């Protein structure tokens, strides 16, 4: 056997991603290219992703992004040995652009096609940065669309949901709170910056679903968002100036506290010794700091891919594709559908 080149295509939301990895005989995966085009600016004025705009943007960005990835890798399309693509979950129209493109490339090249789960990709990507993943780990996936605790087995092939948000995703809460505070979209980075200048104990915001009768591993962020809105309204009505850094720091502390407490508790309960935190919100400075502290106390190994790999990209799909290829799994048929509601 020689090394195999795996192409990964991602289009489940607002990022068009094409990644290329090299799968070595011994199972190691090496990142060769990671090209991403984002339509985030086109959604900014709507305060969230508009599906129709995302689909159209994928259609125009896909071929140029593929070209960029090939240039970055120094390879030709004919060097590709397998094509992996996000089959779901995600926005239907957006997924279809990636799936149709992947089918075209795979059939033109006469190489196997693998439809893979986007969430598994968010975990498998860490192998590109920190080496092979253990067979069993816990993943805290926190992005604009997801806030989930997942038991991951087989490097992202078998995923069991342990808990999830019952309302807003963590990233969504960041985006909504940014809107309340007149900060730009997406809200995570500006709130993270402001929070560094504020006092996390200035305002006591609620920790959702942490009561004794609440679901142990589920999250809720909508009450927190409402609490921030109410606080701002009350202060403004009373003619008091609000401290944006204090509001950001206190909000951020509430999010990081709940996410890390529940993740560490689940890891202990399930006897899992590795926690992977991924998704756009994993870039949050306070979340990774608190997770590092609490994991160290609990004897859990923490793995957080670098921010570029945490957000949606094609490299994560190529990484999971490489793993699936290695297991000699049956390729997906060329009439494979996009599967927006793909279960984890
Ligand atoms: O994974 P991602 O790029 O896209 C999906 O939602 O799938 O995640 C985007 C989300 C946005 O809601 C954004 O506000 C949030 O990740 N985000 C952050 C930070 N950077 C991005 N949230 C908190 N702190 C950050 N530093
Ligand atoms: Zn994602």
From TrEMBL:
Binding site for Fe cation: 118, 122, 312
Keywords: Acyltransferase, Cytoplasm, Iron, Metal-binding, Transferase, tRNA processing
SUPFAM superfamilies: Actin-like ATPase domain
Annotated EC: 2.3.1.234
UniProt catalytic activity: L-threonylcarbamoyladenylate + adenosine(37) in tRNA = N(6)-L-threonylcarbamoyladenosine(37) in tRNA + AMP + H(+)
Pfam families assigned: TsaD
Gcp-like domain mapped to chain residues: 30-318
Physiological role: Required for the formation of a threonylcarbamoyl group on adenosine at position 37 (t(6)A37) in tRNAs that read codons beginning with adenine. Is involved in the transfer of the threonylcarbamoyl moiety of threonylcarbamoyl-AMP (TC-AMP) to the N6 group of A37, together with TsaE and TsaB. TsaD likely plays a direct catalytic role in this reaction.
PANTHER family: TRNA N6-ADENOSINE THREONYLCARBAMOYLTRANSFERASE, TRNA N6-ADENOSINE THREONYLCARBAMOYLTRANSFERASE, MITOCHONDRIAL
The protein's name in its UniProt record: tRNA N6-adenosine threonylcarbamoyltransferase
Species, as recorded: Saccharopolyspora halophila
Lineage start: Bacteria, Bacillati, Actinomycetota, Actinomycetes, Pseudonocardiales
């Amino acid at each position: 056997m020689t090394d195999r080149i795996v192409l990964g295509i991602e289009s489940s939301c607002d990022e068009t991603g094409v990644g290329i990895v090299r799968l070595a005989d011994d199972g190691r995966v090496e990142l060769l290219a990671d090209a991403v085009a984002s339509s985030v600016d086109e959604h900014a004025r709507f305060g969230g992703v508009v599906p129709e705009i995302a689909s159209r943007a994928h259609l125009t960005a896909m071929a140029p992004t593929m070209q960029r990835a090939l240039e970055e890798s120094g390879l030709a399309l004919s060097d590709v040995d397998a094509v992996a693509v996000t089959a779901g979950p995600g926005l239907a129209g957006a997924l279809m652009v990636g799936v149709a493109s992947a089918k075209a490339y795979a059939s033109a090249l006469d190489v196997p096609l693998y439809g893979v789960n986007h969430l598994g990709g968010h975990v498998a990507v860490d192998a590109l940065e920190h080496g092979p993943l253990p067979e069993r780990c816990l993943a805290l996936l926190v992005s604009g669309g997801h806030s989930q605790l997942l038991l991951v087995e087989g490097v992202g092939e078998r995923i069991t949901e342990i808990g999830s948000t019952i309302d807003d995703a963590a990233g969504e809460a960041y985006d909504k709170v940014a809107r309340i505070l007149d900060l730009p979209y997406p809200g995570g980075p500006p709130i993270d910056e402001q929070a560094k200048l504020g006092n996390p104990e200035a305002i006591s915001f609620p920790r959702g679903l942490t009561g004794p009768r609440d679901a142990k591993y589920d999250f809720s962020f909508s009450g927190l968002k409402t609490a921030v809105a109410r606080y701002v309204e009350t202060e403004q009505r009373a003619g008091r100036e609000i401290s944006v850094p204090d509001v950001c720091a206190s909000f951020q502390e509430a999010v990081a506290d709940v996410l890390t407490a529940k993740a560490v508790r689940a890891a202990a309960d399930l006897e899992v010794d590795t926690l992977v935190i991924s998704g756009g919100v994993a870039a949050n400075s306070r979340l990774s700091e608190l997770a590092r502290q609490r994991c160290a106390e609990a004897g859990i190994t923490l793995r957080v891919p670098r921010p570029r790999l945490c957000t949606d990209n094609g490299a994560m799909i190529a990484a999971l594709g490489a793993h699936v290829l290695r297991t000699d799994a049956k390729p997906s048929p060329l009439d494979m559908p996009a599967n927006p509601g793909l279960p984890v």
